[in-house]
Amino acid sequence: MTTTPSTTAGTLADPDTPFAVVDVHKALRNIDRLATKADQLGVTLRPHVKTAKSLDVAALMHGAAPNPVTVSTLAEAEAFADGGYTDITYAVGIDPHKLPRVLALLRRGVTLRVLLDSAEQAAFVAEASRRAGIGIPAQIEIDCDGHRGGLKTDDPALLDIGHTLHDAGCLDGVLTHAGESYFAYSAQEQRLAAENERDTAVTAAGKLRAAGLPVATVSVGSTPTAHAAEDLTGVTELRASTYVFFDLVMAGLGVCRIDDLALSVVVTVIGHRPEYGWIVTDGGWMAMSRDRGTAAQPQDQGYGLVTDLAGRPIPGLVMSAASQEHGTITARDGATLPDLPIGTRLRILPNHACATAAQHRGYHVIDSSRTATHAPAVQAVWNRVSGW
Prior knowledge:
This protein is of the alpha/beta class. It is built from eleven helices and 17 strands. The strands form two sheets. An eight-stranded parallel sheet has the order 2-9-8-7-6-5-4-3. It has a six-stranded antiparallel barrel with strand order 10-11-14-13-12-15. The longest helix is centred in the middle third of the chain and has 24 residues, at 187-210. The protein is elongated and about 70 Å long. The two termini are 12 Å apart. The mean pLDDT is 95.
């Protein structure tokens, strides 16, 4: 793994590289943008904390007060419960051997919702609830486009599962995720994806209610559709994750600007191969991840775009290749490869914030609203949650 954050770092010129950086000014701006949107649409915002996996970052979202969150692992759920969060949705399909940990959190007073999309899952959740004497809140996953998981709204199993859960005191609602919105390259396509996501979830909830089954929660969300949605009538909550940091994939979709990216990785120049047009750094895929999400977009950004230490983009520079601990920077579009001496520090903007953040134990925090001519001062060091 990469270096554990040092609490003594004065500026970005000090810690050993590679390390992850969060610009708190940009993160707060991104958070406020979606919070305002959710307020306008009249829905609860339930951020997905899988991106940052950080209590400090989560505290930015709701003014430091624990509020509803979404997680992707039970380790995240346990860590956020330890941090005082009591309203959590575990948005990955449940399996039987995880239920003891779910029940342990419920016994602590945490409302932990699980997700399922099969009669088999509903049966073992219902049985575990009866045995424990505790209703396990469960949401039925609905497939609105991506087909990774979930039921179609016309699947007869929807009502069967609903009855099984309701009879055991477990039915909480429905949840869907517009996964194909990550391939929606225009504002109109993203609006249509948001409308489809809403309509699918509301239709599923309506069918359950028509069968006499109560539906408390109608949950939708992805970062593109959350920003594109114009009407969420019938929806109770909105989920999104990448919006806190944003990344090059989101910028490539037009959901944000490059200047909105709040996460970067500091690397150091360790070599030159002028015969190949390469600058070599100490930040490979262990620092950036192997994610190449922009490869399918009109502009392939390699493993990331390059800025100087103050965060100013260096025109034409891209991290074009990576091995485990080495990154290769090249020039494109006719740009001139700059003379960057060994020891020069650079920042790389990532393709996928979730994947890049997962490579690091924590974040060195800077504030770009404060003037920095070269090496921004480190304002704080935030650790990621344990069990990541």
